[in-house]
Write a structure and sequence with these properties.
The chain has 160 residues and is an alpha+beta fold. Helix content is 29%, strand content 29%. It starts with 24 loop residues before the first strand and ends with a strand.
């Protein structure tokens, strides 16, 4: 692990990293998160009877859209032409709640970790927004990078 923060100049000023000399490689990232809610809220979402409509489909689209706009939301991120972004949302009765997984892929000079994390975060926020009338006590939890591939630093996988 590097001891230096890459988005700070030697004088401590925030700046976008120059990736011009890097090699274009295929890069992927997978991120996950969860929305914990009352069992009744989960049942309401799964039944399709939420007042605002199809919570899962809307959250999936919101996550995909967010991944494509990551560079607009996170100031020092490079704009990337994603070749793939998927957002999967599955019920988890043990929470109870919904688990969100995002996968991003690109051929570029920089990674797609932020795009995957942004997709998960916005999908979770959309679930909260669409179901908050039924359950304001929902919690967004466990948002994290699970793995990334490609690039100079190679592959990385989170410890379980």
């Amino acid at each position: 692990m590097s001891a230096r923060l890459t988005h700070l100049s030697s004088g401590g000023r925030a700046e976008m990293v120059d990736v011009g000399a890097k090699t274009v490689t295929e890069r992927t990232a997978t991120a996950t998160g969860a929305v914990v809610m009352a069992r009744e809220t989960l049942e309401l979402i799964l039944s399709g009877n939420a007042k605002k409509g199809d919570v899962i489909a809307t959250a999936r689209i919101a996550g995909i859209m967010a991944a494509k706009k990551t560079h607009d939301l996170i100031p020092l991120c490079h704009p990337l032409a994603l070749s793939k972004i998927s957002v999967d949302i599955e019920p988890d009765n043990a929470l109870p709640g919904l688990r969100v997984t995002a996968f991003a892929k690109v051929e570029a000079k920089t990674g797609v970790e932020m795009e995957a994390l942004t997709a998960v975060s916005v999908a979770c926020l959309t679930i909260y927004d669409m179901a908050k009338a039924a359950d304001r006590g929902m919690r967004i939890t466990e948002v994290r990078l699970e793995e990334k591939t490609g690039g100079r630093s190679g592959d990385w996988r989170a410890k379980k």
